[in-house]
Amino acid sequence: MDQMGAVNSELEDLFQEKKRVRNPLVPIGAFMTAGVLTAGLISFRQGNSHMGQKLMRARVVVQGATVALMVGTAYYYGEKF
């Protein structure tokens, strides 16, 4: 039973360390993606398909940047742990 407690405390320590290395830019990118998507859908609904297409293209760019941030952060911090 003591071994199980030791393993749990080691895992908790590891998770606490991992929580500190989160990238604060990823949630910002996610909110930006959602905002551009919402604006694009509203634009389509209002009948402005030209602007809607531009916003959908912008959404793809923002979403790609967010994914690149996630992968880059995982790679960068993966080397250290």
Reconstruct the topology from this structure.
Blueprint: H1 2-20, H2 25-45, H3 49-80
Summarize the structure.
With 81 residues, the chain is mainly alpha-helical.
Please characterize this protein's 3D structure.
With 81 residues, the chain is mainly α. The chain has three helices and no strands. Helix 2 runs antiparallel to helix 3 (49-80). The model has no long low-confidence stretch (mean pLDDT 80). Its main location: mitochondrion. This is HIG1 domain-containing protein.
**Percent of sequence in beta strands:** under 5%
- SSE ordering: HHH
| Mean residue pLDDT | 80
Uncertain residue segments: none
Radius of gyration: 20 Å
Query: Care to count the β-strands?
Result: 0
Secondary structural class? mainly alpha
Main β sheet profile: none
Outline: elongated
The number of helical segments is 3
| Cα separation of the termini | 28 Å
Descriptive terms for the model:
0% strand, elongated, 89% helix, mainly alpha
